[in-house]
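Table S2 (continued). Query chain:
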Amino acid sequence: MDRDAAAMTGRIASLRVGRIAPLGPDRVASAFIKNEVSGPVKAGALGLDGDHQADLSVHGGPEKAVYAYASSRYPDWAAAFPDLAARFVAGAMGENLTVDGMIEDDLCIGDVHAIGGALLQVCQPRQPCFKLALALGEPRLAKHMVRTGQSGWYYRVLREGPIAAGDEIVLAERPNPDFAFPRLVTIVNRGGATLSELNDLAAMPGLASNIGRRVREALDAA
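Corresponding output:
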């Protein structure tokens, strides 16, 4: 994978926010379903203006402020679950940003992206919960996301500002060029980090603090 900062660009294909509403047959409160927004939206420290979270113990907060998902992953999902192929379109994963030209493999932990008037930092992968299955009516989706590593990524907002569909995503800074994002996805989803990887992660700028705590606990146990 070429991680040359000068070569890294993507684009926001669509931008979405959601309000809390009943989800699935059990009518679980969730803001999983996101509606497309036209025009600029402020990216603030706790997320996009107008975007809500039902359970703040596991969703939202500064290190899950904005969720991005690669548009090029959707054909893979359609192939894996052909009965649901028509559902795998922008927004199906509950993302705020559907991104063209960039996937998890193109990222490193802590990458800083300039988007519109904001600066956003890649800090952790998504760990799917049961609401993914509720939204699409397929209980195998979360396991498939874990198995394939097609997690999408969460941003923290370093500089607040407006962003909009059509904005370029430009790599402004890469503090950890030797630790590719998919390595973190594997460690978070499957464990098995080496002592060297744990030591690297413990000192890594940009990593989400919840993962950092788990890393330090693993080091203490080792």
